[in-house]
Amino acid sequence: MQLIPLFKKLIQAKSETPDDGGLLDFIVTYLPDYTAVRLDRNGVKNLFIYKTFSVGEHLCFAGHVDVVPAGEGWSVDPYGAIEQDGYIYGRGTQDMKSGVSAFLQAVKETTTFKGTLSLLLTSDEEGPAKDGTLAVLDYLKVENMMPNACIVAEPTCETVFGDAIKIGRRGSINGVIEKHGKQGHAAYPEKAHNPIHKVAEVLHHMAGVNLDEGDENFSPSKFVVTDIRAGMEVTNVTPGKLKMMFNVRNSTNTDQKSIEAFVHKYFSEMKYTLKLDQSAYPFMTDPNTKIVRTIDSAIEKVTGVKPKHSTAGGTSDARYIAPCGVDVIEFGVRNDTIHAPNERTTAKEVEDLCTVFKEVIRTF
Length: 364
What we know:
By secondary structure, the chain is of the alpha+beta class. It has two domains: 3-169 and 282-363, Zn peptidases (Aminopeptidase), CATH 3.40.630; 172-280, Alpha-Beta Plaits. Helices cover 26% and strands 25% of the residues. It has nine helices and 19 strands. The chain has helices at residues 3-12, 23-30, 97-108, 133-142, 195-203, 256-267, 290-303, 318-321, 347-363; strands spanning 35-38, 46-52, 57-64, 82-84, 87-89, 115-122, 149-152, 164-166, 168-169, 172-180, 184-185, 223-230, 237-238, 241-248, 272-280, 283-284, 308-310, 327-330, 344-345. The strands form six sheets. It has a six-stranded mixed beta sheet, sandwiched between helices. Strands 12-14-10-15 form a four-stranded antiparallel beta sheet, covered by helices on one side. The chain has a three-stranded antiparallel beta sheet with strand order 4-5-19. A hairpin with a 7-residue loop joins strand 1 (35-38) and strand 2 (46-52).
């Protein structure tokens, strides 16, 4: 099968999290010379498939076949893989069936490699992500098969194809503050303790504030308020409790302890509780490592563009791979329509992505 028909086949599979749309079984048949290990867990479909060509290093391509629900507002069938106006439309075209089809075709066409090539695939990246890549990594640890380097084919480019790779990601810390007061009648505010009024006194010191100055690799960690609620939706009762939710996409310069200190600085005179949950930890791969230098060179050779090294954006399953001691980077097509109606990419971007991956395999 040629690359673009392969890409369309992947788009046409309705693989909304945690359904893989039958794609992992298809991939096993598409790579008959590779050893396949299915690692399904709690309804999530996972596949690790590999081939050892000779003695050498282990290079892994990682990604997910699941997509977010199509939603409304499409002008075409979101699972039709429709070509129109120079684009291929469909849910997952950018995030990230373009990347999966590109590295799938690249390894299929590889005949020689000094080492082991593998694919790590899951159907649970867009969901809770607790039974996906983590399940495969548990297996690789036990079997002593952890790769030396990994490329996650998430969409990373911004304006033109080739302009950005991710060499790291910020972490993500979610927080909930509960400020306790005393409920009362709005006509007698002196008899109550209104938590809205108390929080209003300090909110401007917190909302949107940078918790660190950032550095050459990370933008500043910002305290982003995501929700504030209190009261019973009536006008004559002041609330007894206020809940404020926030998120911090943190660099390596901010952690949970520094967030606790920041909140306490402004809430120390109030009765409050704070709960923090870290869903992802920040990581960064050294720009001088072999995989970064190799893909930089491959991108520039194929596109003529020198990619910038970025840590911006949300999280990906690279956050699980990096702590295992693997040099991990992300590279894929442009990301301007991910998760949106009429998600789309071009055939050329997918073809160029496959060519970059082939060049990485050839020169790694």
